[in-house]
């Protein structure tokens, strides 16, 4: 990694921060206006507040309304600080879609390069699931007649199976390179936790490995998702013990864009998943080797016990809950079955020690089996001991997955993340609830922080109208279709879940008389966003893009919010509700209002934008009109049939 020079001179009579402050002032007051950017007082105020966070190496909550230019402000400081310290800074976005938005050709990083004549070394570090797995691709291609998968295989670089020298290797295998694959197709060929990369013979030719080597060498910025950053935090010590490098290098500073979503990424990274089908797949690897009859018998017994265990889990789940996360009743019969399975797996692991000494098991297969069995054992331990973990069952087609997640992550975050003496910046338009940042700080284990809020500079009264439709579920789809047909420019539909999106898609969307309409999940998401942005009369339907979507102009001039984004009645939020005095006011309403404001913020992205927002609520949700009106940029018009 080559350290680049600062974009301003450092002299003996000035500290770095003094010189940085002078340069920032020149940029905002002189250089940007000369290049055609308007001077925004809110942006300048934010910039100089950020300077304090970098000086003090502290946590800063930077809440800045849409149009403030918050990304430009934090990028200028972060790039300079990275060059000053000689370590790259990490920008963690809420999901993979947003990291693409940040580095796109019309994004803020490219804008800084063009306006200031800087060459910024920025590289993407995506979650492991975003990369191709050569082992899975090979098996999928052999057992499937899907031509799309054949196309992926044919696009592999020559060096993957050839004899090219190491100097000819280059990064490949990013999800974005295969936009023609739907989400379900991608799951057949991407990395998953059953792949043991450490012992894979293709490891040094793997796209994930090559991408990791590439982004680690970044000179200025590494952009990743919240999920990947938290996975780095939880795995770094274990990886060091195994002789591996952490997923991310040591950083000079960390920016959490859309930082109000970090808690969910932290919980997800600590989650243990055990599926009904995976154990059979893993143990089949074992049975295909020349193992002893005693071990084969034990494998068959474990598979039978495992199937019985999942049958009992399914029998004792909450079937009345519409959420995909079904809570589990820890019935004594289920606990007994868990302990029986645990004892059998312990016995198998002891037998595998003996089998390995006979050298009859493929080393790669053995590594996968042992690691997966250890994970199942840990899940069983958590399940039996009931130490406050959140446990639920997910169903997908014919498969079922037991998921175990820590209830609260603030203690771990306090120790593993926010104890470090580097700047941590949380940036979002929505970090506080009624001006109070404690809801977010307490959830993340942050004891000391600085915070500020600046409002949006846009004249919403002139550019936006908001309509609240109080309507029953039966009529809602027809009204939404009428709005889409009447508006000939770009529209965004925001749903609170995939199930709600599917309901609209299959029950109502056939009435739309114009095209194209893009549904999240049909293609790689950043590709869909790019298509939507380029076609000013298209429609984008999404259940994830409440945050971060930045599509200015007529490509997005109507936002339809299908329902108020209250959190689901699932075990994760039920656990949060159990630990507060007033679940509705302390958990549900703050979450809904934060996400609601984010959805509203998708419409007006520049001072030239204009459009309409349509919000659909049920009659019983009309009681929240005062709360909704308080966070809306303009007074809404209420419509009833």
TrEMBL record:
Annotated GO biological process: nucleobase-containing compound metabolic process
SUPFAM superfamilies associated with the record: P-loop containing nucleoside triphosphate hydrolases
Helicase ATP-binding domain: residues covered: 29-303
Keyword terms: ATP-binding, Helicase, Hydrolase, Nucleotide-binding
Molecular functions per Gene Ontology: ATP binding; DNA helicase activity; hydrolase activity, acting on acid anhydrides, in phosphorus-containing anhydrides; nucleic acid binding
Pfam families reported in the protein's UniProt record: Helicase_C_2
KW Nucleotide-binding (keyword) present: yes
Family: Belongs to the helicase family. DinG subfamily.
Full protein name: ATP-dependent helicase
Organism expressing this protein natively: Jeotgalibacillus soli
């Amino acid at each position: 990694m080559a350290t680049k020079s600062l974009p301003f001179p450092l002299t003996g009579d000035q500290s770095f921060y003094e010189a940085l402050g002078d340069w920032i002032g020149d940029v905002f007051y002189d250089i940007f206006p000369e290049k055609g950017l308007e001077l925004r007082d809110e942006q300048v105020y934010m910039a100089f507040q950020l300077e304090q966070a970098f000086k003090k190496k502290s946590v800063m909550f930077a809440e800045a309304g849409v149009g403030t230019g918050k990304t430009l402000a934090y990028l200028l400081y972060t790039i300079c600080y990275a060059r000053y310290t000689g370590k790259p800074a990490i920008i963690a976005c809420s999901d993979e879609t947003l990291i693409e938005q940040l580095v796109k050709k019309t994004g803020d990083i490219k804008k800084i390069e063009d306006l200031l004549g800087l060459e910024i070394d920025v590289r993407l570090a995506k979650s492991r699931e975003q990369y191709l797995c050569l082992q899975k691709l090979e098996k999928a291609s052999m057992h499937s007649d899907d031509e799309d998968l054949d196309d992926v295989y044919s696009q592999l670089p020559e060096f993957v199976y050839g004899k090219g020298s190491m100097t000819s290797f280059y990064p490949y295998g990013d999800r974005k390179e295969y936009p023609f694959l739907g989400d379900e197709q991608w799951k057949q060929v991407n990395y998953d936790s059953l792949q043991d990369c450490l012992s894979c013979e293709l490891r040094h030719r793997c796209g994930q490995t090559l991408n990791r080597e590439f982004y680690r060498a970044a000179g200025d910025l590494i952009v990743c998702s919240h999920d990947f950053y938290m996975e780095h935090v939880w795995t770094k010590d274990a990886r060091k013990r195994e002789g591996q490098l952490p997923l991310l290098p040591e950083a000079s500073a960390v920016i959490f864009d859309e930082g109000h979503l970090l808690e969910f990424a932290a919980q997800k990274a600590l989650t243990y998943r055990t599926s009904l089908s995976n154990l059979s797949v893993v143990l089949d690897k074992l049975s295909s080797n020349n193992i002893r009859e005693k071990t084969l018998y034990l494998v068959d017994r474990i598979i039978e016990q495992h199937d019985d265990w999942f049958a009992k889990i399914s029998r004792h789940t909450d079937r009345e809950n519409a959420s995909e996360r079904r809570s589990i009743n820890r019935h004594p019969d289920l606990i007994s079955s868990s302990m029986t399975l645990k004892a059998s797996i312990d016995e198998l692991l002891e037998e595998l020690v003996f089998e390995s000494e006979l050298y009859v098991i493929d080393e790669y297969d053995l590594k996968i089996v042992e690691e997966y069995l250890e994970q199942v054992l840990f899940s069983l331990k958590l399940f039996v001991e009931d130490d406050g973990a959140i446990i639920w069952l997910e169903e997908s087609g014919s498969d079922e997955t037991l998921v175990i997640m820590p209830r609260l992550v603030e203690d771990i975050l306090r120790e593993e993340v926010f104890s470090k003496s580097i700047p941590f910046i949380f940036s979002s338009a929505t970090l506080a609830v009624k001006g109070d940042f404690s809801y977010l700080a307490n959830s993340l284990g942050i004891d000391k922080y600085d915070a500020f809020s600046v409002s949006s500079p846009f004249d919403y009264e002139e550019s936006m109208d908001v309509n609240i439709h109080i309507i029953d579920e039966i009529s809602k789809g027809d009204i939404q279709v009428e709005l889409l047909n009447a508006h000939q420019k770009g529209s965004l539909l925001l749903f609170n879940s995939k199930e709600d999106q599917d309901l609209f898609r299959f029950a109502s969307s056939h009435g739309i008389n114009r095209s194209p309409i893009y549904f999240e999940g049909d293609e790689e998401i950043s590709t869909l966003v790019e298509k939507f942005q380029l076609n000013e009369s298209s429609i984008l339907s999404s259940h994830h893009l409440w945050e971060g979507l930045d599509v200015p102009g007529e490509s997005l001039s109507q936002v339809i919010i299908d329902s108020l984004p209250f959190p689901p009645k699932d075990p994760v939020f039920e656990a949060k509700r159990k630990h507060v005095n007033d679940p509705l006011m302390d958990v549900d309403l703050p979450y809904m209002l934060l996400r609601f404001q984010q959805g509203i913020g998708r419409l007006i992205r520049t001072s030239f934008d204009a459009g309409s927002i349509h919000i659909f609520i049920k009659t019983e949700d009309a009681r929240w009109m005062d709360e909704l009106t308080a966070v809306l940029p303009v007074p809404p018009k209420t419509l009833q049939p």
